[in-house]
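Example S7 (structure tokens).
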């Protein structure tokens, strides 16, 4: 029978080989959107709650009671912040059992959640609380998302079980034969515990068995229900949760972790980890009948409370198929709390096809799981990198995915690292069942050390898929398994510090440097590694280049004031490359040399052009124009960590296109640098199709603050392509009288419509669309110009208009540039514009003069009678804007006659109500 099964698998594998290969090379638009929604680098769903933060009190500060509406801290410095941010709720951040508290556990009692109105930027509230002397730290509260890549069903085939050698493993041990009950917590969207293939394996909390009959679930003849004899509304086991018979629902705050309508992700994960096996129906699971502890949180907003709950209930393994790219100290402490209580945490690595640190997968000690196809090739969607601990089957599309339980006694295919995570969790549970006396470290080491090496099948991802693809048979049979003595290092942050702490690295300054690194290797460390700073740039003099530090296993570590260098007195503005070379007795397979760049000697004008695809960029054009004006210009495609020191910054980010694959996305680090620069009175230009719109769409925490600094009150981003249909420069703006009728940029999707605030002035209005450019002069003395089109691609205006626009922008930013009109902008009556036209009140007349000329302007009605005399005087060279007031004139058609020197032209004006 076993041979027949293997033959069947082989035939099926060949039949789907072509389809699997096709799917390895493409992702449909919806999948891309889902991945973008999960990605913090400028493309997707919110990263943080926008109305709450976490704070942790310093040790010894008296704690707070839960409060709503009216909040009082009874600490004057904190009470001042209540009205400032309209704080309306205060409560514990985590729910935990105080009786579990013991030495060595993080003190979760000092961590609180503060709620406030959404109109206040989260980072502003964080800064205010973090600077208070009573607060240990303050941070946003990350929003977590599951890592599913769903697909349509085909037919029943669990090809991944032979792939991980499950059949051979079950000949050694089955989970149901263990001497201890092993529990796998599923922190997800809920589990259909009525499912015929799951009910027998649902964990039962006998601490709530009020009638003492040995169970809390009963079959009533139709379906499984909670034992009526146990439903007493009392927290019998004293864990803080009333009648939590099988788990908890943190979404509805009740004891029924059954999924909400349409949610099947958690049920699918539960089946992969521990579906009932050998019961003559449904599917099998690698763990062969271990127990499932369901925790429901479809919004993933309370998932860390779910982790704490599962750990306090005694879950040996906790599987987490969700995550966020935002690191949180509070969430890391919640993870550590669960680990110290005895739980092994497993988490999906993410589905964004990139090296990205998804949390909780990348918190220290958590097992990060990548996904492979059934041929052990990295699944096309799976994240990768030194942060991966191990790989497991997660499938690709259709029948190449993983088949598992979904609600209402049904099954379906799904793919994703969401699926790989519970498979790995099931194996960890199986090993724990086979060796209940082993420590968690021994269990993890065994599974990681016995994985099959798949680097030869993934030559582009060597040392980036963990220790290999899990092998259940080897995990149960090999003795003395040891992890490869290899370090995987990466850089998390570099903080250069100048002598006066201004953040500007000027010529002649001596700079010290703090470096934060991460070792991703589980169980592998070095007590005596050396780190060397190298820089070959002649502008840098290395003064202290060696540092010795311990490298902890699977954790962050710091090189504080580790290196010093001096910037030459004659250094010019440039981005300098540095390298940190690590020497260790342990082999370093990733990150032995880490490169990073630092901007030094910032001055003059900085032009940044992104590196994304599409042609909607202006960097070259801006550089050529400003250089021709004999300006001090530095041009780069690398965005510095600090913009201070530059007189003016020009940024061109492109257009993101229909699937957000083009353009250069704004990162949090870029947004922070812009905020600091503008709050110090900087001058900033940006052209981008959807600069603020994409930030708002992805709920970047800096959006509101940056919008205000750009003098924008609101932004609207139509989800369509938009070709220019006449851009008209508005009266009172720097572009008054200018106009453009087209643009040859590509792509041109999602063009931001901008609404200026009281500090802003609308610059360009597009016909039948809205305002697409705003200039601003803000409260910090900053000046800004934001344009939703690439200035370099504008076309079809009158000759020389684009150059005149650049002159006007430069002068707005107080640059001393040539104001002489370009050769084709002669003192001619043809070079005249009227806007708006038709008009109900004022109309702006714009004209250009090369030389001083006498100008005469008159308004006539249809009878030829002069209705208004505007001017008869000498005007000097340059651009001129005159306002013609039409209020006193009747509705109808008029003619504006303009005489320049001995030349004359007449233009029609339509007066409306």
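Recovered sequence:
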């Amino acid at each position: 029978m076993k041979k027949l099964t293997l033959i069947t698998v082989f035939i099926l594998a060949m039949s789907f080989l072509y389809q699997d290969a096709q799917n390895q090379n493409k992702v449909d638009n919806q999948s891309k959107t889902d991945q973008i929604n999960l990605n913090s680098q400028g493309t997707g769903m919110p990263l943080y709650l926008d109305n709450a933060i976490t704070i942790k009190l310093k040790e010894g500060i008296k704690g707070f009671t839960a409060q709503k509406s009216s909040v009082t801290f009874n600490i004057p410095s904190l009470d001042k912040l209540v009205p400032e941010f309209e704080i309306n709720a205060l409560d514990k951040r985590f729910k935990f059992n105080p009786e579990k508290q013991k030495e060595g556990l993080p003190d979760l009692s000092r961590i609180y959640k503060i709620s406030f109105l959404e109109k206040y930027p989260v980072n502003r509230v964080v800064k205010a609380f973090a600077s208070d002397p009573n607060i240990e730290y303050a941070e946003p509260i990350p929003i977590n998302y599951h890592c599913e890549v769903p697909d349509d069903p085909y037919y029943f085939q669990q090809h991944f079980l032979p792939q991980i050698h499950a059949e051979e493993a079950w000949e050694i041990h089955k989970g149901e034969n263990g001497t201890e009950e092993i529990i796998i917590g599923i922190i997800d969207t809920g589990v259909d515990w009525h499912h015929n293939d799951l009910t027998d394996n649902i964990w039962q909390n006998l601490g709530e068995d009020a009638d003492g009959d040995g169970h809390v679930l009963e079959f009533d003849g139709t379906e499984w229900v909670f034992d009526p004899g146990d439903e007493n509304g009392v927290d019998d086991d004293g864990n803080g949760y009333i009648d939590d018979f099988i788990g908890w629902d943190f979404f509805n705050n009740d004891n029924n972790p059954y999924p909400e309508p349409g949610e099947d992700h958690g049920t699918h994960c539960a089946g992969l980890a521990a579906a009932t096996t050998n019961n003559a129906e449904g599917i099998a699971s690698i763990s062969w009948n271990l127990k499932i502890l369901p925790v429901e949180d479809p919004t993933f907003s309370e998932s860390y409370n779910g982790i704490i709950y599962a750990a306090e209930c005694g879950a040996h393994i906790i599987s987490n198929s969700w995550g966020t790219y935002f690191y949180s100290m509070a969430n890391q402490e919640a993870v550590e709390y669960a680990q110290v209580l005895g739980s092994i945490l497993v988490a999906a690595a993410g589905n964004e096809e990139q090296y990205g640190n998804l949390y909780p997968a990348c918190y220290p000690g958590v097992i990060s799981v990548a996904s492979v196809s059934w041929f052990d090739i990295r699944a096309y969607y799976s994240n990768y990198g030194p942060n991966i601990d191990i790989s497991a089957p997660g499938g690709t599309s259709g029948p190449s995915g993983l088949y598992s339980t979904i609600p209402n006694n049904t099954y379906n295919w799904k793919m994703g690292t969401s699926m790989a995570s519970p498979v790995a969790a099931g194996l960890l549970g199986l090993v724990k069942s086979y060796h209940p006396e082993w420590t968690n470290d021994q269990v993890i080491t065994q599974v990681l050390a016995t994985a099959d090496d798949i680097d030869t099948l993934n030559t582009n991802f060597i040392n980036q898929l963990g220790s290999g693809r899990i092998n259940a048979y080897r995990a149960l049979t090999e003795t003395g398994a040891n992890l490869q003595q290899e370090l995987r290092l990466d850089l998390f942050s570099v903080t250069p510090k100048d002598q006066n702490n201004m953040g500007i690295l000027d010529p002649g300054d001596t700079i010290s440097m703090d470096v934060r690194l991460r070792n991703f290797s589980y169980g592998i460390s070095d007590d005596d590694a050396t780190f060397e700073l190298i820089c070959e740039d002649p502008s840098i003099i290395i003064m202290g280049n060696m540092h010795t530090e311990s490298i902890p296993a699977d954790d962050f570590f710091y090189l504080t004031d580790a290196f010093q260098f001096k910037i030459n007195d004659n250094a010019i503005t440039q981005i300098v490359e540095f390298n940190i070379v690590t020497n260790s007795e342990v082999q370093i397979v990733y990150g032995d040399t880490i490169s990073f760049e630092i901007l030094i000697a910032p001055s003059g004008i900085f032009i940044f052009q992104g590196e994304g695809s599409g042609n909607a960029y202006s960097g070259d054009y801006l550089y050529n124009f400003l250089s021709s004006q004999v300006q001090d210009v530095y041009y780069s495609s690398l965005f510095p960590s600090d913009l201070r020191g530059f007189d003016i910054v020009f940024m061109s980010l492109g257009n993101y296109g229909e699937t957000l694959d083009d353009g250069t996305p704004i990162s949090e680090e870029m947004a922070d640098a812009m905020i600091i620069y503008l709050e110090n009175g900087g001058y900033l230009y940006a052209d981008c199709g959807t600069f603020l719109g994409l930030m708002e769409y992805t709920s970047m925490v800096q959006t509101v603050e940056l919008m205000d600094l750009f003098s924008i009150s609101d932004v609207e981003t139509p989800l369509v392509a938009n070709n220019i249909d006449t851009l008209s420069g508005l009266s009172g703006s720097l572009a008054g009288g200018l106009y453009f009728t087209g643009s040859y940029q590509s792509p041109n999707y999602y063009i931001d419509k901008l609404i200026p605030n009281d500090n802003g002035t609308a610059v360009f209005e597009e016909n039948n669309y809205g305002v697409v450019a705003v200039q601003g002069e803000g409260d910090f003395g900053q000046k800004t110009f934001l344009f939703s089109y690439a200035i370099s691609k504008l076309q079809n205006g009158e000759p020389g208009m684009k150059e005149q626009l650049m002159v006007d922008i430069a002068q707005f930013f107080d640059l001393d540039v040539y104001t002489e009109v370009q050769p084709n902008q002669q003192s001619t009556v043809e070079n005249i514009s009227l806007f708006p036209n038709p008009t109900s009140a004022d109309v702006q007349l714009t004209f250009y003069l090369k030389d001083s000329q006498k100008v005469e302007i008159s308004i006539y009605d249809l009878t030829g009678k002069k209705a208004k005399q505007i001017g008869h005087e000498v005007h000097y060279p340059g651009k001129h804007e005159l306002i013609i007031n039409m209020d006193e004139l009747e509705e109808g058609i008029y003619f504006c006659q303009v005489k320049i020197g001995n030349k004359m032209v007449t233009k029609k004006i339509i007066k409306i109500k």
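Notes on this example. The radius of gyration is 33 Å.
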